[in-house]
Amino acid sequence: MGHYSISNLEHLSGIKAHTIRIWEQRYGLLNPVRTATNIRTYSDDDLRRLLNVSTLCGRGKRISQIARLTDAEISEAVLACSNDVHDYHLQVNALLAAMISFDEPTLNHLLDEAAHGLGFERMMLSVAYPLLQRIGLMWMAGTVDVAQEHMLAHLLRQKILAATDALPSVPATARRWVLFLPANELHELALLFMNYALRARGHHTLYLGQNLPNSALAEIRASYEPAGVVTVLTTQPEREGVAEYAREVQALFPEALLVLYGSRARQEGLVLPENCVSPPLMTDFLALVEMPEPQPVAA
Q1: Among residues 6, 21, 257, 287, which one has the fewest Cβ atoms lying within 10 Å of its Cβ?
Q2: Residue 193's pLDDT band (boundaries 50, 70, 90)?
Q3: Does the structure show a pLDDT above 60 at 1?
Q4: Which residues form the domain of 129?
Q5: In this structure, are 192 and 272 located in the same domain?
């Protein structure tokens, strides 16, 4: 069960704290409890209700009308107006509310609807990634349930794998990339999506997955000869070891472009070796792979 401050609610819902207080006092919209020091704290049910109310207000509904609805009626109204897939804020709010309620069927339905209306890649960039960023705020606040996050991550993983499997095959003569996560790194969603994006653009990929020690990469260079190597550094290696890790991987693939993605690769003052890049955003990575491959200079 989450315990949210009013500041948490403001950041997660997009509704100003002042407005939340007015809605609470005037309409009894939320039911906070007070700590021993008289500070309001809010539950998962309060956050879910606020997200749904924010969605309906964003579609022109009056708060005075919404406040008279039951939770079930509010949820029905949200689903009824969630067909505008280009309203990304609405989509994210509806998904977050479904996640908090462990409503897997609604999560699945909303993601499928968004992918159908926007295309899979746009759904991931405009809906799934903002949703994951919101959940990141919840992690920092200590208010997200591990089971909630795992349910969503597993569902997104299934969606990415299915979308990747549906792509046409790519000839082995296409530009080649190796993708993997470092030893003890398990956060795979970004890497899976990067694999999808490369294949969708006609690149050939060798996907090696999670938790791969450098010793397992030794024979890849000779047998596969990748033009690019991609890894995502979320929790591994330790911050002080990132530069050394990059040098070790580059030594294994001296002719390849090394792409380090993730928070560990964007530390202030981090010095990376030559032929190594750290795109700040997923869109930066996509722009990078869409650049034409350098051609060899004629003798």
Answers
A1: 287
A2: very high
A3: no
A4: 6-164
A5: yes
Asked whether the predicted pLDDT for residue 298 surpasses 50, the reply is no
List the single range of 89-98, 159-168, 177-186 with lowest mean pLDDT: 89-98
Which single residue is written with the structure tokens 């708060």? 63
- State the total domains in the chain: 2
Round to whole Å and give the CA distance between 152 and 272.
Answer: 33
How many CB atoms sit inside 10 A of residue 18's CB?
10
Give the pLDDT confidence of 201-227 residue by residue, as tens digits: 999 999 999 999 988 888 887 788 899
Q: At 146, is the pLDDT very low, low, confident or very high (cuts 50, 70, 90)? A: confident
Verify that 201 and 71 share a domain, yes or no: no
Residue 255 located in a structural domain: yes
Query: Among residues 127, 143, 164, which one ends one of the domains?
Result: 164
Q: Does the residue 1 lie in any domain?
A: no
One DSSP character per residue, the chain reads ---B-HHHHHHHH---HHHHHHHHHHH-----EE-TT--EEB-HHHHHHHHHHHHHHHTT--HHHHTTS-HHHHHHHHHHTTT-TT-HHHHHHHHHHHHHTT-HHHHHHHHHHHHHHH-HHHHIIIIIHHHHHHHHHHHHHT-S-HHHHHHHHHHHHHHHHHHHHTSPP--TTS-EEEEEEETT----HHHHHHHHHHHHTT-EEEEEEEEE-GGGGTTHHHHH--SEEEEE-SS-S-GGGHHHHHHHHHHHSTTSEEEEESGGGG-TT--PPTTEE--SSHHHHHHHHTSPPPPPPP-
Angstrom distance (rounded) from CA 277 to CA 271:
10
